[in-house]
Amino acid sequence: MQVQRSSLRRLIAGVAGTVAASMMAASVVQAQSGEWRTDFSKRSVPLVEIVSGGPSKDGIPAIDSPNFESVRQAGGWLKDPEPVVVVEAGGEARAYPIQVLIWHEIVNDRIGSLPVTVTFCPLCNTAIAFDGRVGDRVLTFGVSGRLRHSDMVMYDRQTESWWQQATGEGIVGELTGTRLTVISAPMVSWKTFRETWPEGKVLSRRTGHSRPYGQNPYASYDGPGGRPIPGFVSGKIDQSLPAMERVVAVTRGDSSLAIPFTNLAKERVRHERLAGTPLVVFWAPGTSSALDAREIAQGRDVGATGVFVPQLEGRTLTFAPAGPGRFRDKETGSTWDILGRAVEGELAGKRLPAVPHGNHFWFAWSVFQPEGRLAR
Q1: Phi and psi dihedrals of 5, rounded to 5?
Q2: What's the rounded Cα separation, in Å, for the pair 174 and 268?
Q3: How far apart are CA 198 and CA 182, in angstroms?
Q4: Residue 31's Cα: distance from chain center in Å?
Q5: 302, 262 in Cβ contact below 8 A?
Q6: At residue 296, what are phi and psi to the nearest 5 degrees?
Q7: How far apart are alpha carbons 77 and 5 in whole angstroms?
Q8: pLDDT classification of 230: cutoffs 50, 70, 90
Q9: Which of 151, 155, 129, 132 is nearest to 142 (CA)?
Q10: Helices assigned H by DSSP within the chain
Q11: How many CB atoms lie within 10 A of CB 106?
C-alpha cells in the first residue's frame, strides 16, 4: 500500500493490533452493506487477520490497459540499476519497471494469447506474475485496499473473491481455495533487461494517472533495523533472520525454500534440492533496492537472483562463480548469465529451465510458509 514518509511514521507510532482488528470488523460490515459483491460466507482465513491498509477499494488503481514503449524510449527515464520485473511469453519479453508498479501494484496484461497479471506488494517486496486463467475463466484483478500479514489482498473483478498476493490463493469469496498459476518473473536491473532484449517492450509511464514515477514513497522502509508496520502483521515475527532480510523464495507443490541474500551475495551460486528437484540459484550485483532511497535509482545495491533446474539435454550441470554476473558450468566450461542463458562456450545459446521465484522480505515469506525450509 502507498504510504508517504510522514504517514508511515504516524502509522508506525500509532497503529496497534487491536485497532487493526476493529478496523477490519468495521470494514467487513461496510463491505457486506454494499461495497462488495464478495461471498463472505466462504473463506479460508479469519477475517480479523485482514486489515485496512488505508486506501479504499481501487484507491490504488491497477493498470488495465497498459501502454508499452521501446527499450530506446524507456532509456530516457530508466537508470541502469533500477529493478524491473521481466515476463517472457510467446517469444516476447516485457519489462515492468518497479518505479511504475510501486504506485499501481497490479498490471493486467496479455502477451500473445496468455493473460498475465503482474503484481508487486511494496510492504513485502513480493513481485509475482500470475496466469489469469482459472478453469474456463480469465480473471482480471484490482487492489482491494486490504492487507493480510502486511501483504496485498487482491480481488478479481469477475467474482470479487479476495486473493492473497504472496501465495496466489483465493482466501475469501466464491473462489476460496483456488490457486493461481505462478509465471516466472525475475526481478533484475534495467541494464540487464535492455542488454538482453534490445527489442523488448517496456511498460510505459503513460498510465492515465499522475504519479511521481521514479520516486519511492516508502523511503528507508527496508533500511538497517527496518520492521514491518505494526498492526499489519498478526502474531510474532520469526526471529531467525532480520525481518527485512531479502530471501530467494521458491515453492514447488507443498514444499518451500528460502535462502538469505546475505549468504548468496558471498557465495554467488548455490545448489539445492526442493521436492526432489535439483535447483541452482544465481546471485549477481547491480540491482538497486526500490524501497531504500527516495529516488529508486539511488537505492543501495541488493543484487538480483535467478533460479533454475540445472539440467540440459539429459545432463546435470554444476556451477561456480565466474566474475560479476557470470557463472561457469564445470561439465562444459560454458559461461552463463543471471537469466540462465549460456553466453559463451560449448552451450552458447542454450537456456536453463527457469523456476518461478521471488525476492521476498523474510518476515513475509516466513509468515506464509511457516513449515518451509530456511537454507542458510
Answers
A1: -55, -45
A2: 44
A3: 26
A4: 28
A5: no
A6: -55, -40
A7: 24
A8: confident
A9: 155
A10: 5-14, 17-30, 71-74, 98-104, 190-196, 261-267, 362-368
A11: 25
Determine how many CB atoms are found less than 10 A away from the CB of residue 76. Answer: 7
Burial string for 3-38 (b: 16+ CB within 10 Å, else e) reads beeeebeebeeebeeeebbebbeebbeebeeeebeb
Output the furthest CA–CA distance in the chain (Å, rounded).
Answer: 65
Residue in the block written with cell 546471485? 283
Within 195-252, strands assigned E span 201-203, 246-252
CA-to-CA separations, 351 to 338, 345, 368, in angstroms, rounded: 11, 13, 31
* Residues comprising the chain, all counted: 376
Please say whether the beta carbons of 270 and 261 come within 8 A. Answer: no
235, three cell numbers: 502474531
Which residues partner with 187 through β-bridges?
85
What is the Cα–Cα distance from 235 to 221, expressed in whole angstroms?
A: 20
Which of 188, 194, 190, 201 has its CA nearest to residue 307?
A: 188
The candidate with the shortest Cα–Cα distance to 54, out of 111, 25, 11, 115, is 11
Model pLDDT for residues 250-287, shown as the tens digit of each residue: 999 999 999 999 999 999 999 999 999 999 999 999 99
Contact 256, 166 (CB under 8 A): no
- In 75-138, which residue ranges form alpha helices assigned H by DSSP? 98-104
Q: Are 94 and 86 in contact (CB under 8 A)?
A: yes
> What is the spatial distance between Cα 106 and Cα 64, in angstroms, rounded to a whole number?
8
Q: Cell numbers at residue 367, please?
A: 509468515
pTM of the predicted structure, to 2 decimals? 0.92
Query: Does residue 28 carry a pLDDT above 70?
Result: no
